[in-house]
Amino acid sequence: MVGTAYPMRGGIAQFNALLCAELAKQHEVRCFSFTRQYPSLFFPGKTQMEEGEDPVPIGATPIVDSVNPATWFAAAREISAWKPDALLFKYWLPFFAPCFGTIARRVKAACGSKVIVICDNVIPHERRPLDGPLTRYMLGAADGFIVMSKTVLADLRRFRPDAPAEIAAHPLYTHFGEPMAREDARRRLGWPREGPVLLFFGYIRRYKGLDLLLRAMPGIHEATGARLWVLGEFYEDRAYYDGIVKEDRLEEIVTMRGDYVPNEEVGAYFSASDLVVLPYRSATQSGIVQVAFQMERPVVCTRVGGLEEMVRDGETGMLVPPEDRDALAAAVARYFSEGLEGRLAEGVREQKRRMGWSNLAEAVIRLAASNRREVA
Q1: Residue 115, strand partner residues
Q2: Which of 59, 196, 305, 331 makes a 20 to 30 Å CA pair with 5?
Q3: Where are the beta strands (DSSP E) in the chain?
Q4: Which of 232, 281, 274, 279 shows the shortest CA–CA distance to 255?
Q5: pTM of the predicted model, to two decimals?
Q6: CA 42 to CA 17: how far, in whole Å?
């Protein structure tokens, strides 16, 4: 695998590690990671590095600098010398297409490895010039694809209509552990033991729709008494969101922690919450849903992209139209007024049993085993 890995932080690094660990149960696996993922100029957050312990140790080799082609060629030489049967990438942003696409082509030419791309996104949430050509360059190097929603499959078919592709459900982030009792989690975090709590989790950009949830909070609080915790680093101007809190007088019911949440704390925050709310304007899929399900928390989210494939309306959560804060507020109010937690949480537990990493690993192996080229 070529991709981000510890000590670089974030869900993609954790995804890569969990998949490598699953594959390593039956196969020899190596991960080649970054020495630098983003130049500081292009990175909107505070730091790209984990401060805590490695949650899933896989012994990745840091070798790739995303903006230094000399490291791409060096990585390709080292990978080719190992002669892997398959070369695996997780692709989510055209920024990485030159680096990943170049490594893929050089390794294929040198030793005939099958190139498999797991597509988080094919078309990025936030469009930029050259997205199309860069995406074509990356996808053109692949022999097979794995997607995690029908929405992404449809996007893929616009670029590679006949390429081998499989749909595999996004597995759960199991490294956060098992859910805690709500009372124990709240005691650990210093939260009040009584009263419903909503959770918005993850880095904050406009497409995530946090402003819509904030605008809905007066009605939600009036109907349910619920508070909102916002946990995630701001990748845009926080002042806009602080302005909504002040304008709507939400200071007593909304708490915003504007930094990255260490892995060791994630499980407690989800366990302490009653309901996870994802009011996205656009989406392909969301790793936050998988964290919520691992912690056995239902989700209220919008009907966008692959979210409605991940969250089953009335079974594991509730779906509402995008950019409709009244519908969002009504769904949250209904969740509490009708006492839906028990039924939806049981649906989450049932779905959780079917969302392990083995299915994704098996899809990788099937693609890797088919029609491998031999290079003299």
Answers
A1: 87
A2: 305
A3: 32-36, 61-65, 86-91, 114-119, 144-147, 165-167, 197-201, 227-231, 254-257, 275-278, 299-302, 317-320
A4: 232
A5: 0.86
A6: 24
Q: Which residue has the tokens 């709507």?
A: 248
State pLDDT tens for residues 224-251.
999 999 999 998 899 999 999 999 999 9
**Paired tokens of 76:** 């390709």
In tens, the pLDDT along 198-229 reads 999 998 999 999 999 999 999 999 999 999 99
CB under 8 Å to 129, separation ≥6 — which residues?
none
Pairwise CA distance, residues 24 & 26, whole Å? 5
CB-count burial class (<10 Å; 0-12, 13-18, 19+) for 53: exposed
Place of tokens 């695998």: 1
Residue (of 182, 193, 189, 192) closest to 264 by Cα position: 189
Q: How many residues does the chain have?
A: 376
